[in-house]
Sequence to fold (289 residues):
Amino acid sequence: MMPLRRFAIHRPADLREAAEMLDHYGENGSLYAGGTELLLAMRHDLLRYAHLIDIKTVAGLDGIERRDEHLHIGAAATHRTIERSAVVREQLPVMAEMAANVANVRVRATGTLGGNLAFAEPHSDPATLLLALGGNARAQGKSGERTLAMDELLAGAYENSLAQDEILTGVDVPVPGPSQRTAYLKFQVHERPLLGLALSLELDDDGGVIREARCAVGCVSPTPCRSATAESLIAGPADSLEQRIEEAGEALADEAALTDDREGSAEYKRHLIGVLLRRAARKCLNGNG
Ligand SMILES: Cc1cc2nc3c(=O)[nH]c(=O)nc-3n(C[C@H](O)[C@H](O)[C@H](O)COP(=O)(O)OP(=O)(O)OC[C@H]3O[C@@H](n4cnc5c(N)ncnc54)[C@H](O)[C@@H]3O)c2cc1C
Fold:
């Protein structure tokens, strides 16, 4: 690893000042939160910035709160904060459970949700889960605020769709009602997940019928993806889901356009998708994986 090149750190007082700094420094400046991705890439000389704009100190950017029917999680909230948050554990336990299994405790204590999503590293756990949960990202730039769906924010591997002066301020996740069940499962051998899979089911009042399904697979494509075919196959009588799940897994794997790479063959990843989807369905319906 190379020694870090010299850079200046700036501490904006608020988001408006942060957006102005981003605009002012242009390609020479970057936002900086936990630094777990950014500083590593700078040490390897993959990224070069003379100015880092530290947004951790912007008041309220790490807040977590219920806002009407959504749970708002601030972009500067660390994975550890999300994992331990009483409100997340109570209102969106699957998010707390997912956060508890991101990386190691050192990365979780410093790395933020906003940094994870903005860096758009394909092996992201939160991106896959948030896609299945219907979470939206909020971004603030010089000219105002806008909302982006997860698949709008993630433009490709290591590529987000934020404008030069835009800052991710947080995500809004719909709080699940009593008839919604969600599971997130991942398979991991090395430092980062090889595959992540999220399934969210909306059941009818007596739990016998799956009214709506959302499923997403991540880590195996540049960005996580959903499959409309898989979702319509999963919807239907809950007690016969086992008979439809294999075809749904195939459809989800087709959508992910799997390729052979150093993490495994496309066939291996297809098999894992089938296994994790079946386990996620069992977890949603019976509470066990
Ligand atoms: C050893 C290791 C293991 C890991 N394992 C996992 C894993 O199992 N699962 C998983 O999901 N992730 C994993 N990660 C990724 C980890 O989640 C991220 O490194 C972390 O969340 C990044 O957050 P950060 O605050 O450190 O971002 P930084 O490094 O500070 O920033 C990353 C990028 O995001 C930009 N950025 C930061 N905040 C914002 C914002 N609010 N708005 C716009 N742009 C912003 C920065 O400009 C930079 O380009 C791992 C990382 C490491 C190093």
